[in-house]
Amino acid sequence: MFVGEWVDVVLLDDDAELADRAIRQLRRELAEHEIDMRTVGTTSPSGSKGDISSFNAVAIALGGAGGMVTVLVTILRDWLGRRPPQQRVKLTIGADTIELDAASTEQQQQVLEAFLRRHEAS
Predict the structure, then answer these.
(1) For position 28, what pLDDT does the model report?
(2) Residue 95: which domain range?
(3) CB neighbour list of residue 120: distance below 8 Å, 6 or more residues apart
(4) Residue 66 pLDDT
(5) Under a CB-based contact definition with an 8 Å cutoff, are residues 17 and 56 in contact?
(6) Mean pLDDT, residues 75-97 taken together
(7) What is the DSSP code (8-state) at residue 45?
(8) How many domains does the chain have?
(9) What is the pTM assigned to this prediction?
(10) Closest C-alpha among 29, 9, 31 to residue 19
(11) 27 lies in some domain
C-alpha cells in the first residue's frame, strides 16, 4: 500500500470534452509507467461552459522507488507540452498549489520539479 503524499492534478479548461480526453491520455501515460493513481472528485471552475467533473482530475502517488519525481516531472512536462494553449493544470499537495500552462519547457520543468521535491518522501 502507498504511504506518502498524493499530487492532485486538475486540468482547467472550459471545454469539458477536451478536458476529459486530455486527462484520460495522462492516465494512460501514468499507467504505462506503473505510477499509482486514483480519481479525484472536483467541481466546475467558475465561469466554465461545461460540466467538468471528476474526469478532469487525477491524483498521483508521490513517493515510492527512487527517481519517482524525475519520472513524474518528465511525464507531466511532456503531457503539458501537448496541451492546447487555453488549457492549464493545477497541481496540489496538501495546502501547496501551483498552476502550470504551456510555459517554456525549461521554465516549466524547474517549477514542477521544485514543487514535487518539496514534498518528496524521504
Answers:
(1) 93
(2) 5-117
(3) 62, 63, 68, 69
(4) 55
(5) no
(6) 85
(7) P
(8) 1
(9) 0.74
(10) 9
(11) yes
